[in-house]
Each structure stands twice: as C-alpha cells, then as structure tokens.
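Example record for the data management plan.
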Amino acid sequence: MRRFKIKIKRRLKEVRSRETRILLTEITFASAVNNLGAKKMRKAVRRWHDERPRFMVTVAGGRRLDQLSPEEEDEFIQNRLGQLKGWLLDIVPDDLEDNQKGLVVTWLARLARDLETGYMSQFLEGNAPGRDPWSDFEMFFHYQQFMGEKDLNKIADLDELAQVVRAARPQIEKHQEGKDYGDVSKGTEVFRDDDEWFIAALHNKGAACSFGKGTDWCTAAPGLDYFADYYKPEDPLFYFEDHDPSVAYPRNRPPEDLETGDSPRFQFHYGSLQFMTEDDQPVSQHMQKILHDALMQTEAPHKYPIIQKYDRKMKIEREDTSAEDLHGLIEDDATHYEELVDIARHPNISDESLRKLMAVSDPTTPDYVGRTGQHRHATALKQGVARGANSPELLEDLWEITKSGVAQALEDTEKRLRASPHAEDPEWVPSKLPLQLRATRGFFTNVWKQIVFNPNVSNELMKEIAEFDGGAYLDSFVKEKILSREEGLVGDKALTPLQIRSRAIRRLSDEQGQAAAMRGHEEISRDIARADRSDVFFQESKIYARWKKIIN
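Corresponding structural encoding:
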C-alpha cells in the first residue's frame, strides 16, 4: 500500500513538472513582463540589498535601506524593480514570437531571483550578463531544430546557452549552404558593383537568405519569415559588401580569390532604422555614415524616397551640417514641413535661409495639411525662425510679417464661421466667434513670445510687441527683461526667459498677491516646457495634428 502511494505521488509530481514546463513555454510576453513586479521578485530584490555590504546599500540622503520608513522602502524597492525590468528587457530580442519572448523573460527572471547566479547584481548595476545574450536568444529560437538542447528551461544559464548555440553553428552553416534559395537574381537589384563596394536592394526571401549566409540576420534565417515583417516594395533591405582587400576575411587573400562571406557585410533597413553588421549588431555612427553616403552616390535615392528622407534627417541632426547644405534642404520640394521647422532651429542656418522660411505663408510641403484656398500662415515655422534669428533686423522683419498676418488670419476665421451651415442659427456665430478668434490670435502670440525670448531682440521692438499684444504676460516679461538689461545683465550674463519670468512673478507677488503669482508661474512653466518640445510647433492646425497622429 505504501509503495502504491509513493508511485501515485511520483506520477503526480511528474505531471505537475510537465504542466509547469508547458506553462513556462506558453506564457505570453505581456504576462511575463507583468510578473517581473510580482511578490517573488520584490522579495528577491529586497534580499539582494540585505546581503550587500552595509556601505554599498545607501540610498537617497546617504541612509541605509534599514533606516527607511516602510513607505520609503516600498518606493525604493519599486524603483529598483523598474531598473531591473528595464535592463532585463534590453536583452530580449524583438524578432521572436510572443510566447518565445515570454519564455525568455520568465527564464531570465528565475535566474535573477537566484542571487547566486549574480544576474541580479548585473541587472541592478546596469550591466547585461553573458557575452552576447541578444544574439544567442535569436540563434537559439531561429534555428531551434539544430540545438542540442531545445528546451530553454533545461539550460542552466546564459553561459550554457552560448555553448549550445556555438555547438549548433556548424549545422546551421551547413543547412544554409545547402539551401536552395531560388529567384535570387530576380530579388537582387544591384546599384553598385566595383572594386570598392557591392550594394544591392533585396526584394525577396531568396536574395536575403543567399546574401545573408553565415550572418546572424533574422531576415536571412531560411526557416523563418522575418523578411516579410521588414520588407516593403518602397522600403527594401539594402545589402553592402566592402570589397577592400585590406578588410577581407581572412586577411591578405588576393582580390580575385575573395568570395561572398569573405568581405565585411552590412544590412540597412531605413523604415525601422536598423543598420546592422553581420553579427546583427548596430554599426558605428562613423561606419553608418560611410555606408549611407556610398548609397547616396547611386541611383537608389532617386527610386526610394525613404533614403532621401533619412539623409535629410541626418543633415538636420548633425551640428556640423553647413549653411549651404541646410539651404539646399529648404530649396528641396521633398522636404517636409516638420523638417523645415527643425532646420530653422539649426545653429548653422544663415540669415538668408531664415528670411526664406519666414516668408512662407501657405506651405506646400508633402506633409502639410490644411484648408484648401485659405491662408495657413505657417506660425509654427515662424516660431522656429524667431528662435534661430541672430540679428535684431531679422526679428523686426518677422514681426512685421506676423503683425499683418494675424489681421488676415482673424478675417479668414470670421469668414469661415459665417459661411458655415450652422451660421443659420443666429446665436451660433456670436457664441463661437470669440473663442475661435482667441485661438487664432494665440498662434501668432506664440511667435511673438519667441521673438521677445530671443536674446538679440531690441528693447524698442519688445515694447512695440507688448503694446500691440495687450496681454499682461508679454507686458510684464518685456518690462522685466528691459530692467535686467539696464542692470547690466547682458551678453554672457543675460538671464534666460525662465529667470526673467521668475523675477516678474516675484514682483507680481509683491504687487498683486500670491494667487496672481501662481497663475503667472503656471503660464511661464507651460511656455518654457513647450519651447523644449518639438510638438509645440504643431499647434497651429488641428487638422495637421490629427493627421500627424494617424501617420505616427
């Protein structure tokens, strides 16, 4: 009887173990991520801190963890869990199936909770355990049929995983060599093939697998279809091969003996901004520029606009882009409105370019959407010009343009409302018009704020703007800025807009009380925050804002 009970218990244990493995394999990625904040992990993080030397567990204020109140300790542990989650998820590949990612997260979490592995220390100290866990996970799941151990739960740690993957590589390479890819020539669009570079666009799975032999690119994995996840006819994969013999593998092989796989290879996908080495690691910024520039010298940019879009992005973001190149982007009909706004803020932009931008009243860029047949004034672009202007004269010209522009905009707004079918209701226009006019004028007020924020603006122009605007905000700001200049706070000593407004608020508090000061503080906080965010420039058109959300 006792022997029978033991057999029953053993079978139940085996069933439970089998069920646990099934659950670990089938857990979703979202569930696995959610479990990182569960009680088990919280206890493990707390235990890790308890076992650290006392001098290494100080927190905010120089206190040790055991000196915190229960609420402070809970908040501290929660923050540490967030750090752990961030670093752990950084080594989970994106191109795995959902349940595979869930399994990886669960497996790593189990190893982290076991403090003897040292993974908890590495995660919380901002390091990734293992040599190259991202690539090892990719290879393990992409070529699981070749792995000596196919069950991740039976692999002890990342070191053993690396060994399993390394042992499978010869079989993987043999499988790739013997694969019939078919239609390689049809899927290969060659843009350059000479002594320096081979550059081609890859348009089908066969081409991706053929040129990706021996790489870690998921798009080249024969048994998987990640190629379809990336490829679009207007956004193909671009393949690069460096034909320079001095960088070939193995070294010093005669050029005529070089074969595919001997030369360093790279793969670009502009749509997902992935620029990878053959080890599926991001290329350096220096190498990325070399490869991109080589592609730009081919016919590819004329056929695929996404390359030109990225080229514009690189030029706008780089601080060493010349004024001539920036002006060329302004002249380019393909440049988008959002890009023009960023160009206006570039430190190397010339006055000539800024004058061209501030004269734009009805943008015709590919991405700008507004009401047909009406002035749109491009106030977002003018805000960028106001921030980038380097001379008082340019700011004065911008003020004249916007002063006349606001009158036109207010007139257009009233005409639009009165032409609406709702205007048949005698109460509708009077109820809507004040709000619409205030909103329209607000777009121009944002430009005027940027003009008075600019350190190059003259006192006379600030006074004129404040008087024309008639609002308390600009009036108090201008008075305080002029006063600071009279105190000698100019040049390197000049106050920032936030400092000027803070002084104005303190003065307002003395004169009108705390409530008025708080209102002023909230207003300047919003304006300064907007000035540091790119989306401030897209308030001018509700249509544009809705459209931008759709495309993003």
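Summary line stored alongside the record: The first strand starts at residue 188 and ends at 193.
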